[in-house]
Amino acid sequence: MGETSPRLEGLLLPSIADVSVLSLDVSHKAIRIDVRSTADGAACPDCGSESTRVHSSYLRFPADVPSGGRLVALQLRVRRFFCPEPSCARRTFAEQIPGLTRRHSRWTERLRSTLAAVGLALAGRAGARMAQAFGVSINRSAVLRLLDALPEPEVPAPRVVGVDEYATRKGRVYGTVLVDVETRRPVDLLPDREASSLAAWLAKRPGIEIVCRDRAPFFAEGATAGAPQATQVADRWHLWHNLGQAAERAVARHRQCLRVLVPDLEGKADEPAPEEEADSPWRSERFANRVRARHATVHALLEAGHSRRSIGRQLNMTHRTVKSLADAAKPEDLFRGQWQHNRTSVLDEYKPYLDERWDEGCTNAWKLWEEIVPLGYRGSYGRVSAYLREKRTSLRPVTAQPPAPRVVTRWILSRPETLTEIEQLRLKAVLANCPELDALTGHVRSFAHMLTERQGERLPQWLDAVRQDDLPSLHTLAAGIDRDRDAVTAGLTLPWNSGVVEGHVNRIKMLKRQMFGRAGFALLRKRVLLAP
């Protein structure tokens, strides 16, 4: 035992009043601090009456936060008092030191809050392992009980709220997250994504003025029913994403127009093809028959009324495989484009230029490499040489392939100044050969200008212009926008968006994975709302 100075209380137990450190015992493994209360009395926990009449005393040994790699425990002399109120059912009670102890607790409040913070960051098993790393023995269930005991934060009713869904089990069970867009803090989690649940939550908060959401119908219905006074704002990113999907479908419908980028593909298509290589699975008759059989099976099940998810389970196929088979009208559609190599190369977009120069009689690989470097090529000379060598030695014609619809869609959706010179030339050639894609490009860039400049008042004119062209995929998009025109106009005009909500959805995904997908809704909600 060692003597202590009057300043030791402030060093060892800061912010705790009415305590005195009597002695300090330090060993190689642990530190024991002898503490007692200096208060004259205590208040009864039932009736609140102050008492100074001591009944008895006993020792408690609550654990404290470890220090210097050593376990820390308090040796606390606790007094028991008589309750002075005759009508109180409690005759005696033990004193509690505010900020230091609570009833039936083996830890000080400081250690308790530390363990709760560890559990909030890491949940049960990982939190228990981390606690053991700094010297506190605790199991995962105790960590979860500490989390469950944490009070929920008092969040003022938001003025601008963002709404989005998150997956508890992707494709099956979804919930709803609500975020205060102004403070960027989550305010609540709902266990489902039903319109009635969102409407009930919004109805309890009549001060909401703005609801930021995507274009999901259940969120639109819930916001309309629960907050009719609020302005609904469709998120700009989702609008642009929907436009991109519609543009890709439109380009895919005109994939034949992309062949203009391959100069002599039409002429070489008439040449007799050499014997098919046996080592290519795409040219194997056995593979083709297997694809035809799977295609027939999937379409038979669809006609019988089975869902695509059910078909995937029965045939042990992924959702993407079932979708590709179901979307193909005939098996031969699945072979399209598979006769060529699917691997991309940095040389792909420069191959049309090399083909043109090859047809003009220039076969010098070094000279051609020097010509495409100023056009933006960043690959090696070896790639150019290998491509020309293949053209020189191959039995079958070797030419550049038409770009994939997704590549052309990227050119259309990108700012013109961000495209390389050769991408601009290739896009210009496509648009000159296809009036529909030229019109699509005009609509996309007009929408982009309207979105970036927040000119939502131009939306009706844009919709009218879209309907005048033969672009079915854009017509479908326009019909959907028309049904939600007020929210889309607000999204293209007001500064609010759902970006902060998407960030919290990503964080929820991280929390779910951290808990191996086994956390219940209550624990997930607690970790989301109490996160620092």
Summary of the model, kept short:
The chain has 532 residues and is α+β, with helices and mostly antiparallel strands.
CATH level-two architecture of the domain at 160-235 and 497-530: 2-Layer Sandwich
Report the strand count: 13
- Low-confidence regions: 264-283, 337-342
Name the CATH superfamily assignment of the domain at 160-235 and 497-530. Ribonuclease H-like superfamily/Ribonuclease H
User: What is the helical fraction, as a range of percent?
Assistant: 40-55%
Radius of gyration: 35 Å
Distance between the termini: 41 Å
User: Could you tell me the strand content as a percent range?
Assistant: 15-25%
Shape assignment: elongated
**Briefly, what CATH class of the domain at 160-235 and 497-530?**
Alpha Beta
Description of the structure:
By secondary structure, the chain is of the alpha+beta class. Among the domains are: 8-106, no CATH class; 112-149; 160-235 and 497-530, 2-Layer Sandwich (Nucleotidyltransferase, domain 5), CATH 3.30.420; 237-254 and 407-491, no CATH class. Helices cover 45% and strands 15% of the residues. The chain has helices spanning 8-12, 109-122, 124-133, 140-149, 195-203, 217-226, 236-253, 265-269, 285-303, 308-315, 319-327, 351-359, 365-372, 381-393, 405-413, 421-433, 435-452, 459-467, 472-483, 485-491, 499-514, 521-530; strands at 19-26, 30-37, 42-43, 50-51, 54-60, 63-67, 70-82, 92-94, 160-169, 173-180, 185-190, 210-213, 231-234. Strands 1, 2, 5, 6, 7 and 8 form a six-stranded mixed β-sheet that branches. The radius of gyration is 35 Å and the shape is elongated.
